[in-house]
């Protein structure tokens, strides 16, 4: 386990160093191409409810046009919201991620950046939003957070590194892998034939892809993608 953590940490360091040399023009060009590819996927076109990561100011593909187009097309769009676990325990992380719904395009453009520059729903708005997981330890539970759950059909995921087997390396907090595992358990509890895991799509800059023959270090807790869109290149599927 220690060697796996070390391998992941070293790969993150290497890719971050590589990304520091990618020009803003290249990110914009690759973002436009990748967004067009994503919007053409049949899985996107048929989905009514999707989750989209909101991008950092640099170092990854921008998702702004994807979110705007999805909202224009009348899709329900969910974005990450990270909150503290209360009360904290030794068995649980200090913070976890849920997906919460955007209400409109105006709501989207009005989101304020967090400490990493990522547009994020405000804490006091969460009580009025639909969520994908009903968290038992949300700080907002006593404030009456919405109990309405929604099933996702497509999840668009970020990462720091990807390989040609469609494995991804996240930024180190485990938010997406944890969310997907919790989401899977919630579907199993519901035991409805209509419930199934969403289609998982990764978005990557070309500089985030490992060379052929190299693989992202993973273990059983890491979720593999169903498809990967890399900059200006064709989509890669399992």
Strand-pairing-aware structural class = alpha/beta
Strand tally is: 11
The pLDDT mean sits at 90
| Residues in β-strands, percent | 15-25%
Termini separation (Å)?
27 Å
Order of helices and strands: HHHEHEEHEEEEEHEEE
Can you walk through the features of this model?
This protein is of the alpha/beta class and 238 residues long. A 7-stranded mixed sheet has the order 3-2-1-6-9-10-11, with helices on both faces. A two-stranded antiparallel sheet has the order 4-5. Strands 7-8 form a two-stranded antiparallel ribbon. Strand 7 (161-162) and strand 8 (168-169) form a beta hairpin. It has helices at residues 2-19, 24-40, 42-46, 64-72, 105-109, 175-190, and strands spanning 49-52, 76-84, 95-101, 112-113, 119-120, 154-157, 161-162, 168-169, 199-204, 227-230, 236-237.
Strand and helix layout:
Blueprint: H1 2-19, H2 24-40, H3 42-46, E1 49-52, H4 64-72, E2 76-84, E3 95-101, H5 105-109, E4 112-113, E5 119-120, E6 154-157, E7 161-162, E8 168-169, H6 175-190, E9 199-204, E10 227-230, E11 236-237
Parallel strand pairs: 1-2, 1-6, 6-9, 9-10
Antiparallel strand pairs: 2-3, 4-5, 7-8, 10-11
How would you summarize this macromolecular structure in one to three sentences?
This protein has six helices and eleven strands. By secondary structure, the protein is of the alpha/beta class. The longest helix has 18 residues, at 2-19.
């Amino acid at each position: 386990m220690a060697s796996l953590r070390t391998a992941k940490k070293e790969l993150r360091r290497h890719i971050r160093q590589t990304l520091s040399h990618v020009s803003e023009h290249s990110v914009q060009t690759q973002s436009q191409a990748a967004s067009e590819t994503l919007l053409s996927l049949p899985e996107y076109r048929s989905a009514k409810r999707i989750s989209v990561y909101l991008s950092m100011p640099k170092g990854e593909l921008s998702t702004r046009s994807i979110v705007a187009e999805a909202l224009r097309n009348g899709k329900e769009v969910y974005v990450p919201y990270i909150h503290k676990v209360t009360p904290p325990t030794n068995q649980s992380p200090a913070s976890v991620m849920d997906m919460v719904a955007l209400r409109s395009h105006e709501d989207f453009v009005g989101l304020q950046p967090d400490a990493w520059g990522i547009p994020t729903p405000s804490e006091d708005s969460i009580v009025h939003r639909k969520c994908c997981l009903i968290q038992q330890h949300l700080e907002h539970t006593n404030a009456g957070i919405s109990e309405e759950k929604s099933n996702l059909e497509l999840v668009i995921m970020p990462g720091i590194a990807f390989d040609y087997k469609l494995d991804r390396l996240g930024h180190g907090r485990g938010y997406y892998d944890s969310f997907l595992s919790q989401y899977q358990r919630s579907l199993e509890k519901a035991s409805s034939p209509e419930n199934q895991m969403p289609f998982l799509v990764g978005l990557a800059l070309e500089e985030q892809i490992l060379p052929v023959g190299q693989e992202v270090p993973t273990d059983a807790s890491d979720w593999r993608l169903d498809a990967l869109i890399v900059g200006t290149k064709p989509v890669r599927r399992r």
